[in-house]
Write a structure and sequence with these properties.
By secondary structure, the protein is an alpha/beta fold. Helix content is 20%, strand content 24%. The chain has one domain. The mean pLDDT is 93.
Length: 104
């Protein structure tokens, strides 16, 4: 009996122009620290800004990673894929809207 083999896609289009990598370990240590009430993780707060998201249709993708190895106190490490040689340290309680504007 012959079985038809369907060709699997080897790529999927995304609308991302850049990706922002957010250290998950830093975020977990802060237990929030961002957003209007200071209870949101940085990744979640960034995804709420216009143009940012985790889906394929976002302009800027926000991805929470494993530990990036910097481990600053009371801050979160992020990496902008357009400037991989310059990692940023975002202090707890920083204005997420201002950060999003700088990343755009």
């Amino acid at each position: 009996m012959e079985t038809a083999v369907r060709a699997m896609k080897d790529h999927v289009r995304a609308g991302w122009t850049a990706a922002v990598l957010v250290c998950g370990k830093c975020s977990k240590k802060l237990e929030g620290g961002f957003g209007a009430k200071g209870r949101m993780s940085l990744a979640k707060a960034l995804r709420g800004e216009p143009g940012f998201g985790k889906g394929r249709k976002a302009v800027f993708g926000v991805v929470e990673t494993r530990c990036l190895g910097i481990c600053p106190r009371n801050a979160v490490t992020i990496v902008d894929s357009r400037t991989p040689g310059r990692w940023r340290i975002v202090p707890e309680g920083a204005d997420v809207e201002e950060l999003a504007n700088e990343l755009r």
